[in-house]
């Protein structure tokens, strides 16, 4: 399916050290909520297992899964920018760092080479117009019988909640509204329809789970929201959007106050698992 890939500067956030800390912290929170990094329905006890992480960011997902996989396994990272990759001299020899825009076809040497492809948190880059081109590229990486694992937020499930009933939380409610409609053209129905799209590209959906946050996760997700908003403010300042950045910093302070009073945002995760036909 032909589509225009997003340009590199469509990434909403910074790629500095603080942004990397945000990604690593969000990774930790996600692991706490989900309870796993590779879905239990995906077999991992295979000789010379090859795994790829698309949109890898800091590479922390792949680094952690290698600790739990056989020594003969290997992982490859793909990201449009290598700016947040760890220094290769600190990395294990079975971790490979690559630079590539996932909305463009992958190089031939990577096609049909991997047993597991993982992708997560592409909401700000993906829409119903370009998601099929992305899936087509992801499927091209899989060996016959390989697995595609896609984890996202179900943004439409987001809601503001107060620990103490009747407590005002206008900033948190505004944050939820912004999450659901950050710009007039934003739409996220494709997240809920990934299983249907998978079938068009030769994938059998073997799992589609909705994962709910527990009360104990709420404070940590509040940290993620604050770090994300502050990262966005830094990016806006660097782009000359000083008034928007100022409003963002002011909102962050209001959010901190409301979070301290027990307000939070709850959002479900959706993970969809597809298996490529043999």
Structural class: alpha/beta
Approximately what portion of the residues adopt beta-strand conformation?
Answer: 15-25%
Q: How do the strands of the widest beta sheet line up side by side?
A: 3-2-1-4-5-7-6
Distance between the termini: 22 Å
Over the alpha carbons, how many angstroms does the gyration radius reach?
A: 19 Å
Q: Per the principal axes of the C-alpha atoms, what is the gross shape?
A: globular
Describe the structure.
This protein has helices spanning 17-34, 60-68, 131-141, 170-180, 189-192, 194-200, 218-238, 242-260, and strands spanning 50-54, 74-79, 95-99, 114-120, 142-162, 203-211, 263-276. The mean pLDDT is 95. 36% of the residues lie in helices and 24% in strands. The two termini are 22 Å apart. Helix 1 (17-34) runs antiparallel to helix 7 and helix 7 runs antiparallel to helix 8. With 278 residues, the protein is α/β, with parallel strands linked by helices.
In short:
The chain is an alpha/beta fold and 278 residues long. It is built from eight helices and seven strands; from the N terminus they run αβαβββαβαααβααβ.
Main features:
single chain; 278 residues; alpha/beta; seven-stranded mixed sheet; 8 helices
């Amino acid at each position: 399916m032909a589509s225009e890939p997003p340009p590199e500067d469509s990434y909403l956030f910074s790629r500095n050290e603080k942004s990397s800390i945000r990604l690593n912290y969000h990774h930790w929170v996600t692991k706490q909520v989900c309870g796993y990094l590779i879905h239990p329905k995906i077999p991992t006890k295979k000789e010379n297992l090859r795994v790829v992480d698309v949109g890898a960011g800091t590479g922390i997902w792949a680094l952690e899964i290698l600790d739990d996989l056989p020594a003969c396994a290997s992982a490859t990272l793909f990201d449009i920018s290598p700016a947040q990759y760890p220094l290769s001299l600190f990395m294990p020899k079975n971790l490979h760092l690559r630079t590539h825009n996932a909305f463009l076809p992958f190089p031939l040497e990577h096609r049909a080479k991997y047993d597991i492809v993982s992708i997560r948190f592409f909401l700000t880059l993906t829409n119903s117009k370009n998601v099929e081109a992305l899936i087509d590229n992801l499927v091209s990486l899989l060996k016959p019988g390989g697995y595609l694992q896609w984890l996202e937020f179900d943004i439409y499930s987001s809601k503001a909640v107060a620990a103490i009933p009747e407590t005002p939380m206008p900033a948190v409610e505004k944050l939820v509204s912004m999450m659901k409609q950050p710009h007039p053209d934003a739409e996220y129905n494709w997240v809920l329809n990934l299983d249907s799209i998978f079938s068009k590209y030769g994938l059998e959906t073997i799992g589609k789970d909705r994962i709910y946050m527990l009360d104990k996760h709420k404070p940590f997700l509040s940290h993620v929201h604050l770090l994300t908003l502050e990262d966005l403010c830094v990016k806006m300042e660097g782009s000359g959007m000083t008034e928007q950045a100022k409003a963002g910093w002011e909102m962050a302070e209001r959010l901190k106050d409301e979070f301290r009073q027990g307000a939070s945002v709850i959002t479900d995760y959706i993970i969809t698992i597809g298996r490529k036909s043999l």
